[in-house]
Amino acid sequence: MHEVSLGNTLRDYLTGEEIEETTYEEFRQALARLLVEELGYPRERLRAKVPFSYEVDGERFNRNLDLVAYDDAGRPLLVVVFCSGCVGSFVRETAVAARLIDNGPAPLALATDSRDAALIDPASGEVLEEGMRAVPRWEELQRAAEKADRTPLSPDQRSKLERIFHAYNGFLLDSCCSSECCGPFQKS
User: Fold this and answer.
1) 43/65 Cα distance (integer angstroms)
2) Contact by Cβ (8 Å): 141, 124
3) Where are the domains of the chain?
4) Low pLDDT (below 70) residues in the chain
5) Count of CB atoms within 10 A of residue 39's CB?
6) Which of 30, 74, 83, 125 has most Cβ atoms within 10 angstroms of its Cβ?
7) pTM of the full predicted structure?
8) Are residues 134 and 120 in contact, defined by beta-carbon separation less than 8 angstroms?
9) Whether the bond into 105 is cis, omega within 30 of 0
10) How far is C-alpha 155 from the chain's CA centre?
11) pLDDT tens digit sequence for 71-83
12) H/E segment holding residue 42
């Protein structure tokens, strides 16, 4: 299933602005609320639908990352990717996104369908914990960031990871309905 408009608007939990209601937006809003109200994330440190660009063979592609938590310096701490389907099948894509994100890599990543989750170490691709209890509290996230290797990717590493990310995004979406889909994958 792809993210499509439901023809309505709703109030964004993080910004208070009216935004388009989509098939995934209610899940994004629930995740933001969980992070802020139950796990102590400062609202101003979270961004939804974070634009993410990458390049393959000279062609630029854009995708939105569902939620990203940032530190005081504007560096990503946690990349959250909402997935419809088996959470485990989104682990690699989510880990790669967390390594490629601007000002990254992010020390942790989370793939979730809002009922299940996989907390991922982007550097190794290893699943650290599973289930919604795996979502780190704000304090835990900050401690993980202090210990993490945040060395930026070399141009060669970046190029290889962009190809992997594109394989997950480009192939799957191009093969179904790219001319009709208003999902998060678009060529620039």
Assistant:
1) 17
2) no
3) 46-178
4) 1-2, 4-6, 170-188
5) 15
6) 83
7) 0.86
8) no
9) yes
10) 22
11) 999 999 999 999 8
12) none
